[in-house]
Write a structure and sequence with these properties.
The complex is a heterodimer of chains A (250) and B (616). By secondary structure, chain A is an alpha+beta fold. Chain A is 22% helix and 39% strand. Helices cover 34% and strands 14% of the residues of chain B. The two termini of chain B are 48 Å apart. Classes of the chains: A alpha+beta (250), B alpha/beta (616).
Chain lengths: 250, 616
């Protein structure tokens, strides 16, 4: 009798997780979040990086991005998590090969190996923006400071927020962690540069343009938003706001 | 000077990335370093224009030249147009954002007749004089190419010169001539007289038409004896050696054909008598599987696209389809790239192939019997039988597919109500086959019957035929609707108003050019987009110009009438078309030209299927 033995090779795939921080410049501020994901998917394919794909009928590449950026907003603090097959691909090499295939305006500025199971999307808690606003309304440094302090001293700041079921009143006071300004008079026109730290993420999210609308309504100033730029993003870990690349987070 | 688009403006329009350029593989050059600036214009939206293969080829081909910078221009959507006009922003090229009126060439590709008002609108937005006559020394040259250039007369007043046929060689010849002319101080006419010597160039202002009392054409006369009276299209003889880009622009926003397109061959050997493409792209010329594999790899490396599709007029007819697809599947599986296979004839090989090629939802397969009875399929030379269709759907249903789309035309020459009813009968037979197979899988069937109304086209055996009146077509549509009795069949039919206007422009002469400009003045644009098509305004434009549209659409011509495109030579002879027309009325079929040469005339090109034993 012939004995038939079957040798089964089990391919052991070790996986690695890489967190990246990237920049989104003026060149790509008008593309949607979904389109940006395609930019990365195609860049990964061009770079022939060993990314992990999901199982099933429509396999998706293993990548998760942080908070979507509104159209027209630039950022120095975007984050993406990538799941790769760890065939001795170093993190610096991953970053270099991906950067070579990214279009002008998208650039990975940092990358680190990640151990934690929580992906970037789930843990985002706050975001810092710089918003440059122009106004024809008269103002000086001193009275602007007094007015903004008064605005922030309110117990409730109610704005109308668009939700799935229509417009809804929302109290945004607790979503504003910090609000600072710089006044640059410029003839009959004033440029106000605001730095704001606000809630971000799936639990509570305050869009910077909504805060500007509320504040300038309170100030009774006309306004025109010149640009919005995200400078930082924070995750909530161990009850504190931390940089997503922080060792305590990864 | 480059145009600055404000953030506020871009934020206020739909899909702003249509207007900002800077896509992966878009070509960046210093405009001061070139002699020739070419604005390649597609008279429709970004999503449609960016899907067009010809534009991808010629864009990169022109940019291979050091003396030339080719940039892309699309028709801005209506919201953007309003903003541009409000802010005095002229039509600009995507790469440099420079106003195109200062370019050397503005070139339009003519893919369908109902995009012509967009050409007028784009010229106006650019600040370019609308007619050749109004352009003066120093103005940009307006040129055009593409399939509709073979019937150039409706655009004769607007376009300075047409390039007939495949563009890869002729466009370089024109650029060479321009390089020599530019800076010599010679006139525009001198340049046009120089390029009219190039085979395939047609300068409408060099010719004169006279008309008979019944409005038909009396004569077509060159203004000087040296202008050619037979303008022959250009073709590429060797498809393996012709330029094909190894990179293509990868857009940010999703476009209609968002994938790598591999062109496997040009032309079609089937000779369906209603199909203009089947005649104007002759002869059939293939690329070798080796060349296609090389291109597929290079294009994947440079784009990272998730899908590759094989394109041609009838991919099942590609000689090496089996070899090519198996090699492609091997190569692309590892790269996580899907293979998409449109326009395959359904048989066991293609079903098997589609299954292997991923991304197959077994929901919809497409069949195009085109006519409901064998008699009428013979008239139009659609070489398939009812048995072919039923065998194919049976195979598909057994393989687990549960949806079919059936394409038919109504208003074909010689069509009777019996032929129309035949569409319903064939559809019910498809349903019956499914019911037999259904025991194997319980899912419901979805049959989609799509009915379009036939538009007679130039350079086909039906170029002399009258289009059926709108009322007649509507009655046929309703008659058929009453014959279809099943909730599992959904029935769609086309708008006969748009089809009527298409018929006018598909066989129009020079006299309708003023109607086109008038219709645009009255507000027509994006006519191909249902929500923008304004039939009543079009009819008003015809009335104001004193032109009868029915003369072009619903009139039967005699074989000896001078047609407005008789001076254009696509290789297929008029004698052959007359012969095919007669055979159609005798209900006689003609064989596939790979099997039996019908002597259509395309052999003058000595290439591909006409050139010897080997079509590759």
């Amino acid at each position: 009798m012939l004995l038939y033995s079957k040798v089964v090779f089990v391919e052991v795939m070790t996986l690695a997780n890489i967190r990246t921080k990237f920049r989104r410049g003026d060149e790509v501020k008008f593309i949607s979040h979904l389109d940006l994901m395609k930019v990365f998917e195609r860049a990964i394919r061009r770079a022939r990086l060993p990314i992990v794909y999901s199982q099933g009928f429509n396999p998706h590449p293993g990548m998760v991005f942080g908070l979507p950026l509104s159209v027209g907003v630039t950022s120095d603090a975007e984050y993406g998590d990538f799941e790769v097959i760890d065939d001795e691909l170093s993190v610096p090499e991953f970053m270099e090969r991906l950067n070579a295939q990214l279009p002008q305006g998208v650039e990975i500025t940092a990358a680190k190996q990640r151990q934690s199971k929580q992906n970037i999307m789930a843990t985002i808690a706050a975001s810092e923006y710089i918003v440059v606003v122009g106004t024809k309304s008269e103002c000086n440094e001193k009275n602007l400071k007094v007015s903004i302090d008064k605005y922030l001293a309110q117990n409730e700041i109610i704005i109308e927020k668009r939700t799935k079921s229509g417009m809804k009143d929302t109290n945004i006071r607790d979503m504003i962690f910090d609000l600072d300004f710089e006044l640059q008079p410029c003839g009959t026109y004033n440029i106000i540069k605001l730095t704001m730290l606000v809630s971000a993420g799936s639990k509570a999210n305050l869009k910077p343009d909504l805060l500007i609308e509320s504040l300038f309504g309170y100030l009774e100033f006309d306004f025109e938003i010149d640009r919005i730029h995200r400078t930082k993003l924070f995750v909530n870990a161990q009850d504190q706001l931390l940089d997503p690349m922080d060792g305590l987070v990864l | 000077m480059s145009i600055k688009l404000s953030d506020a403006l871009l934020k206020s329009v739909e899909k702003p990335s249509r207007y900002t350029g800077n896509e992966w593989n878009s070509v960046i050059k210093d405009p001061d370093s070139v002699d020739i600036r070419f604005a390649f214009c597609f008279p429709d939206t970004y999503e449609i224009g960016m899907s067009h293969l010809g534009m991808k080829i010629l864009y990169h081909l022109l940019n291979e030249r050091e003396d030339c910078y080719c940039e892309r221009v699309f028709a801005p959507w209506t919201d953007m147009e309003v903003k541009m006009r409000e802010n005095n922003i002229p039509l600009y090229a995507l790469e440099t954002k420079d106003a195109i009126r200062n370019f050397d060439f503005v070139g339009f590709t003519l893919q369908y007749e109902m995009s012509y008002t967009n050409i007028v609108n784009m010229l106006d937005l650019a600040g370019i004089p609308l007619t050749s006559e109004a352009r003066v020394e120093g103005d940009v040259f307006v040129c055009a190419g593409g399939p509709c250039a073979y019937t150039p007369e409706p655009l004769a007043d607007i376009v300075d010169f047409f390039m007939m046929g495949e563009g890869e060689e002729i466009i370089n010849e024109v650029m060479d001539a321009y390089g020599k002319w530019k800076g010599t101080g010679q006139t525009r006419v001198a340049f046009l007289e120089e390029i009219v010597k190039i085979e395939g160039i047609y300068v409408p202002s060099f010719y004169y038409f006279s008309y008979n009392e019944d409005s038909t054409i009396k004569s077509f006369t060159p203004l000087k004896p040296q202008y050619p009276i037979n303008i022959r299209k250009r073709i590429i003889k060797d498809m393996d050696k012709v330029y094909y880009p190894d990179k293509i622009v990868v857009p940010y926003t999703e476009i209609v054909h968002d994938r790598v397109m591999l062109e496997v061959f040009r032309g079609c050997s089937r000779g369906c008598r209603f199909c203009q493409a089947g005649f104007i792209y002759r002869p059939v010329r293939e690329k070798s599987p080796e060349r296609l594999m090389e291109l597929a790899k290079k294009l994947e490396d440079s784009t990272g696209y998730e899908e590759i599709s094989l394109t041609s007029l009838s991919t099942s007819d590609y000689t090496s389809l089996e070899v090519l697809t198996s090699r492609l599947l091997d190569e692309m599986e590892e790269r996580r790239v899907n293979l998409s296979l449109p326009s395959l004839r359904i048989d066991s090989f293609s079903l098997d192939l589609m299954e292997k090629a991923h991304k197959v939802r077994k929901s919809g397969l497409t069949f195009a019997p085109e006519a409901g009875t064998q008699r009428l399929r013979d008239v139009i030379n659609k070489g398939i039988t009812e048995e072919d269709v039923l065998n194919a759907v049976s195979l598909a249903f057994n393989g687990g597919w549960n949806g079919v789309k059936l394409y038919f035309m109504i208003g074909l020459p010689t069509e009777t109500l019996e032929d129309v009813e035949g569409i319903a009968e064939l559809t019910h037979k498809v349903l019956a086959i499914y019911r037999k197979v259904q025991k194997k899988n319980g899912k419901g069937l979805n049959v989609n019957v799509s009915i379009s109304s036939f538009v007679p086209k130039a350079f086909t055996p039906f170029q002399w035929e009258a289009q059926y009146s709108r009322q007649d077509l509507s009655e046929r549509q309703m008659f058929l609707k009453d014959k279809i009795h099943s909730k599992q069949i959904s029935y769609n039919y086309s708008d006969n108003k748009l089809g009527f206007m298409e018929a006018v422009f598909a066989r129009g002469d020079r006299r309708i050019c003023k109607v086109l400009i008038k219709a645009w003045e009255l507000g027509c644009k994006f006519d191909g987009w249902g929500e923008h098509f304004k039939y009543d305004i079009w009819m008003k434009a015809f009335e104001e110009c004193g032109v009868d549209p029915y003369f072009y659409a619903t009139r039967k011509r005699e074989y000896d009438e001078i047609l407005p495109w008789d001076h254009i030579d696509v290789g297929v002879s008029k004698k052959y078309l007359i012969n095919e027309s007669k055979k159609a009325f005798e209900e006689k079929i003609s064989l596939n030209c790979k099997v039996d040469c019908g002597g259509c005339g395309a052999a003058i090109f000595e290439s591909g299927v006409c050139g010897g034993n080997d079509i590759g």
